[in-house]
Amino acid sequence: MDLTTFDYQKLEDKIKTRELSCVDVTRAYLDKIEAARSLNAFISVYKNDALKRAEQVDKKIAANKAGQLAGLVLAVKDVLVVKGGRTTCASKVLSSFISPYDATVIEKLKAQDVIFIGKTNMDEFAMGSSNESSYFGPVKNPRDMDRVPGGSSGGSAAAVAGDLCVAALGSDTGGSIRQPASFCGVVGLKPTYGRVSRFGLVAYASSLDQIGPITKSVSDAARLLTFISGHDHRDSTSANLPVDDYMSYLDQDVKGLRIGLPKEYFAAGLDPQVEKPIREHIDVLQAAGAEIIHVSLPHTEYAIAAYYIIATAEASSNLARFDGARYGVRAQGVKDLEEMYIHSRTQGFGREVKRRIMLGTYVLSSGYYDAYYRKAQKVRTLVKDDFERALSDVDCLLTPVAPTTAFRLNEKLDDPLTMYLSDVYTVSVNLAGLPGISIPCGMDVSGLPVGLQLVGKPFDEGTIIRVADFLEKSH
Ligand code: GLN
What does the pLDDT look like over 155-197, one tens digit per residue? Predict the structure, then answer.
């Protein structure tokens, strides 16, 4: 059997008993990455560094001093800084930027002897749902090369689905971990806002962004979450709460659990081919003794609009720092400072990023602030209240991840509004700051993966991991 198809659960024993060396495993992935270049999943591959690290980890294993994730070959979305390497955010503006330090999540995983294999492609500054807005070109879906992998963590999801790494890290502002995981047929977990430190994550929309794992199994997601979570004094929004042992939620039953189905998520717009396998999984839960409860999230229809106002407003402010003076690309041949700003930003940013900066600047401008930004914040509160009400009666919610399976490359590129609608089932979860997990649950008639989403109460990743693991093992 090909070892690159293993999740860490399967690989761990073989590595720790030294049946396989970390160097062997790393080399196998590097070969796979080379062979799968047409996927365009990576922006940087850490060929020499990964092998060097693998050698060191092998020595630590021999000396019985290895960390708990020894030999886990990990790909990292290129929006997280890894010291000494490039962090581009898939933008021309940062195409030559070298990270001066490690993000907190990278530091934590380094301490457990994870092996970093490279940085994955993404939508520019994490803005997109198809991975087609990257300066480095689109990523292809390993399940069907004519289709998008989803976005914005499309490179990470494609790398996991294509067996180019054991697992990957992504970031999720409005669905960017869960939606590509669903399109590529892998597991994607977005933790509660504040669960994982964002220090070292290049900000898109700071009040919505979270880092999370994309993996081949729920157990790997649980394990990675256990190690990346926790308070960090360098991120004032990280929660000072104890971290659960998420592995303890695996291999549990679902008897007596109350699972809510929001009616607005099973309405017009949902492809029946997506709905079918989800309904089958609901039956599985019911047969196993879970109680299925019908709930309502009445403000769902306003979520996309509120999200795109809040996310773009925050992005317009966060991206103001890329002005040619401090980071990345600086326009040449300009006559003064003002022209340098204008030309650097004009040359450095792609179309979607510019569209969002303009939209965000507009909704924050004094004449329109109340009509758009303030209104969107009020809607956000209503969306959050909807979830609070629904979740007071159930243990978690079950929904689709996206209305369709992976669409074709170029299909939605010229129609941003239709593209934005692919996030209809994920953005509310970010507006409310809740944890959500996407797991594969079947296929459509073309053999494309369908995802199922579980949404939990704040800081209760445990319950959604428990249900997700149960469903995964019911196959
Ligand atoms: N597709 C959404 C957007 O473009 C979500 C992106 C994300 O989660 N980073 O904003």
Answer: 999 999 999 999 999 999 999 999 999 999 999 999 999 999 9
The per-type count for the chain, helices as H runs and strands as E runs, is 15, 11
Verify whether residue 77 is a known catalytic residue. Answer: yes
Same-domain pairing of 233 and 345: no
Q: Which residues are within 8 A (CB) of 161 and not within 5 positions of it... i.e. 6 or more apart? A: 141, 142, 143, 149, 184, 185, 186
| Ligand 1 and 133: CB distance under 6 A | no
State whether 237 and 169 are in the same domain. yes
What's the gap in Å between 48 CA and the centre of ligand 1? 33
Please report whether residue 313 resides in a domain. Answer: no
- For the chain, what is the domain count? 3
Q: What is the pTM of this model?
A: 0.98
Residues 399 and 465 in one domain: yes
365 in active site: no
Residue 176 among the catalytic residues: yes
Residues 271, 387, single domain; the answer is yes
Show the beta-strand stretches assigned E in 98-186: 115-120, 167-172
Q: What is the pLDDT of residues 294-330, one digit of tens each?
A: 999 999 999 999 999 999 999 999 999 999 998 888 9
274 lines ligand 1 (CB under 6 A): no
Residue 90 CB coordination number (10 Å): 33
Among the options 44, 176, 182, 197, which is catalytic?
176
Give the span between the Cα atoms of 242 and 148, in whole angstroms: 38
Which of 172, 351, 423, 424 to mutate to test ligand 1, by most ligand atoms within 8 A of the CB atom?
423
Q: What is the CATH number of the domain that holds 124?
A: 3.90.1300.10
Ligand 1 in contact with 152 (CB < 6 A)? Answer: yes
Range of the domain at 363: 318-371
